[in-house]
Amino acid sequence: MTGKRILMIVGDYGEDYETMVPFQALLAVGHTVHAVCPDKKPGDTIATSIHDFEGAQTYSEKRGHNFAVNASFDDVKPESYDALVIPGGRAPEYLRLNARVIEMTRHFFDAGKPVAAVCHGAQILAAAGVLKGRTCSAYPACRPEVELAGGIYADIAIDAAVTDRNLVTAPAWPAHPAWLAQFLDVLGTSISHSGLSLAA
Question: What pTM did the predictor assign?
């Protein structure tokens, strides 16, 4: 089984499920995932937040886990990776101010490599100027940013996802089954249930 090399850009108060679940799921099917954060080195942690939907007009937020990054942001060479994952939460609002985050994001679009973004991850895509003419889902509060960046906002169910060429997006963590399945498809990952063998 030959897996892909996947870069994940994370930050403090990124959404817990949107960081932990794709990181672990992609590892489980044989891919290599390097989680990086500006100003962090391998073994350093970020604080995650848990966003829940409890009947208020927006999500609630609670402190999540400490998530350890496993690669150095300063050493990242985007050209050595096959795909990019951008979790949501509050991290994207400050990560998009980092010029190197924007440069890395643009690389994956310029090269036509698979990109998966969920929830507020669209804030980084919008800041990178890569959404023009593309269909993109995001947390509904990010709709103006998607549209101002020239994207077509996908107004879909909270547990749905959408693929536009190399870009796979979803509104929030309830969409993980659809979002990860579509991303695995774009990656070219096939999973066989015959004898539970995995092929990446």
Answer: 0.94
